[in-house]
Design a protein that fits this description.
The chain is α+β, with helices and mostly antiparallel strands. 28% of the residues lie in helices and 21% in strands. The protein has a 6-stranded antiparallel β-sheet, with helices on both faces. The longest helix is centred in the last third of the chain and has 27 residues. The relative contact order is 0.23.
């Protein structure tokens, strides 16, 4: 199994809906109706997640801002979170299975149900992949699939992922653009001063609304 675990989704959403989603705390664990089935039907079929590790009461803005800052300090999470072409696009990675990060991110995506611009179901993916890329639709690395409709979110044990994967290709490309820039910054680091970079804060990779209460550090 890979050391890279990823959560990604593309959710059609107006700018207003995106801003309201960002500022609305996720306080109800039942935002996902069947959270106990998170892994059913996929590679970890039969396993159970410890949902007590998921953070509750945070807004998506607070959650993702924290992880953007973690990436700035060379941490184990890296996130692309943007609003473009009338959609929320998220492509996030953690090194190692950080259960709190993954389960909280899934809850945050489930909460888009009330802010989507289209009631038709959308899909959020959780998977493991050494290269952090999107696997083939029938690949073995898929760990969970969350379906998000206009009335709420549920895990699904079986789904055709091709259209979802196709829709996530631009976010995947943006993620690897950031990864390339981070790799160059790490190579240039002198190893003496504490590592810090502002690359993850670039508005190409994270919507400025997410960082509005963050302090820019140089």
């Amino acid at each position: 199994m890979s050391d890279s675990f990823l959560v990604a989704a593309r959710i059609p959403m107006s700018r207003d809906g995106f801003e309201r989603w960002l500022d609305t705390p996720v306080t109800d664990p039942a935002v996902i109706a069947d959270q106990e089935t998170v892994f059913d039907g996929w590679f970890w079929d039969g396993e159970r997640a410890d949902w007590s590790r998921a953070e509750i009461g945070l807004s998506p803005r607070e959650f993702f801002a924290d992880h953007v800052e973690d990436a700035c300090d060379g941490g184990v999470t890296t996130c692309v979170v943007v609003h473009r072409d009338d959609a929320l696009e998220i492509y996030s990675m953690c090194l190692g299975f950080l259960e709190s990060f993954v389960l909280t991110a899934l809850r945050m995506l489930a909460a888009t149900a009330w802010f989507k611009s289209d009631p038709a179901p959308d899909t959020a993916l959780f998977w493991a992949e050494t290269g952090a890329t999107l696997p083939d639709a029938r690949g073995a690395g898929w760990l969970s699939v969350l379906t998000i409709g206009g009335e709420g979110a549920r895990f699904t044990a079986d789904a055709d992922l091709k259209a979802t994967i196709d829709g996530l290709r631009p976010a995947e490309a943006l993620f690897f653009e950031m990864v390339d820039q981070l790799a160059e910054a790490e190579e240039d680091h002198d190893g003496v001063a504490p590592y810090h970079t502002v690359i993850p804060r670039d508005h190409a990779f994270v919507d400025p609304a997410i960082l509005r209460d963050s302090i820019t550090r140089s």
